[in-house]
Amino acid sequence: MGQSKLSRIDVFVTVITLIIISFMMTSFLGCVVVYSPKLKCYNNLKGVGTALAAYAYYNNDEFPVAGGDGPWSQKLGWDYDDPKASFDPGDKYEHAPRTLTASWYILTREMDLDPSALVCPAVIGATRFNGDGSSTELIDMWDFGDTPYEHVSYSIQNQYGKYPAHKTSPADNAIAADMSPWFDANGDILPPATGTDSPQLIDPSDLDTWQLGNSRNHNGKGQNVLFNDMHVSFEKTPTVGVDQDNIYTYWTNPDNPTPADKQQGQNPTARDKANDSQAPEDSFLAI
């Protein structure tokens, strides 16, 4: 029986086919690399939402708020790994400063949320909190170490203000999202930038400026947002709260806000009572 031989045309077609398949596989794998951090981030916030809903179920529809009644602060007012810290009336830490990350940490203490759920994989340098060398068990701690901003990539509604998030808040309120562009990796508050740099207050009449108000977690392309009905979606602008409220700023006119007031708002300038939501529908996600 004679052996079959491939013609030059057969060889040419085979080579071209293999090149096309190789190109398609490379493109597919490239898409996986590009989009997997965003998808992992999305799933992180879904897990956070599940933990928040469970916490609210056992706590009269309330979301976590760190102990005591101290002010919102960049640094925790007690040792993060002091298992004996107490915040009852008259106790030493009743009025101690509180970080917003300490409110996040309650989900680890009480709902067994793994700290990795608060790390967006797109953020360079962010790492899972593992105790930072302390001998105290994670479930007995109060915050993500002395440098919690290295371990938390997401902003949360200001839980120490006039309008903290809770389960009975409007369903389409944004309650958490990728990190606010107004805070850097150390938790410092940033001033408005200029030119094409972020962060900036958006111009509601100029769509080209809207990305300048986005989180930097995903290179300014948008942010994963957790809403109070516990759904998560990737939004390309920050104006996704109630009535297109900007989720990273607070209203400038609390009594009769215009659409522009809600969409632009005021950027945070300090951690104090003046920098706060102005109504239950005014999301103000910070850290």
Automatic annotation (TrEMBL):
Bias regions of kind Polar residues — which residues? 252-269
Q: What are the entry keywords?
A: Membrane, Transmembrane, Transmembrane helix
Q: Which organism is it from?
A: Anaerohalosphaera lusitana
Instruction: Note the superkingdom of the native organism.
Output: Bacteria
Sequence segments annotated as region (Disordered): 252-287
Transmembrane intervals: 12-35
Protein name (record): Type II secretion system protein
